[in-house]
Amino acid sequence: MDERFLREEMLLGHEAMERLKSSHVAVIGLGGVGSWCAEALGRSGIGRLTLIDEDTVGLSNINRQLCALNSTLGLPKAQVLAQRIRDINPEAEIHALAARYEAESRDRLLGDFDFVVDAIDLVSCKLDLIMSCRERGIPIVSALGTGNKRDAAQLRLADISQTYGCALARVVRKELRRLGVEHHPVVFSPEEPMEPEQRETPPPGRRSIPGSLVWVPATAGLLLCQYVVENLMEPPRG
Any residues with CB less than 8 A from the CB of 21 and at least 6 apart, and which? Predict the structure, then answer.
């Protein structure tokens, strides 16, 4: 018995821990939500993790992203998180890919995953990832909007058909329905978003920069981890 995961095994049991150890999970998008989810999966005993994000750590990430420290500024987020998780569990197999998920990179980035966590912001890339995983038979769960929100208690795991009060959920729900998909697991919040004072110049293609408080994306990331772990620990059906 690995004492690192003793307290978890006390609740989930030995067989569940063995299934988690043999599982391969990808986290795509390592910002405020994905960074917390990735580390939580590492602390949950997932044996193989693939971490995908093209971005590097910036100063404005420090208030909410697990990978963001003064000592990691300018480093690839995937690399920083991989080093952290290897330090948590040296036996885990961690693949860090400084890459952007999009239709052009899909075949290169999607592998033999047992589960995918979608923490992508861009709608077109999010939709492509969801549909590509469905076509390949890979279970996937998606994060929806956490920017401009302050009440983490309103976050919840739900089906996309049950979402409301979230602009990103509305767009994703509409586009998935157009593609013939009515049901998809997500983490979302129905909280009415705040109107932030704009302090940064938006990048090309964006009208504004959302404000963010650490406890909201962090809670979303932990809920995503919970969903993945609870599904992976179940015995195979059939």
Answer: 45, 46, 47
Is pTM beyond 0.85? Reply is yes
Q: Which residue has the tokens 């593609």?
A: 179
Q: Is the pLDDT at 203 greater than 80, yes or no?
A: no
Q: How far apart are the first and last CA of the chain?
A: 29
CA distances 210 to 158, 169, 172, Å, are: 23, 16, 18
Confidence class for position 34, pLDDT limits 50, 70, 90: very high
Q: If you average pLDDT over every residue of the chain, what do you get?
A: 94
133-19-46 Cα angle (round to 5): 70
Q: What is the DSSP letter of 75?
A: S
Helix (H) or strand (E) holding 217: helix 215-232
Task: Give me the mean pLDDT over the 143-161 stretch.
Answer: 97
Determine contact, residues 139/117, Cβ cutoff 8 Å: no
Q: Which among 129, 55, 65 is positioned nearest to 96, based on CA atoms?
A: 55
Residue 137 host element (H or E): none
- Residue 198 confidence (pLDDT) above 90: no
With tokens 């995961």, the residue in question is: 5
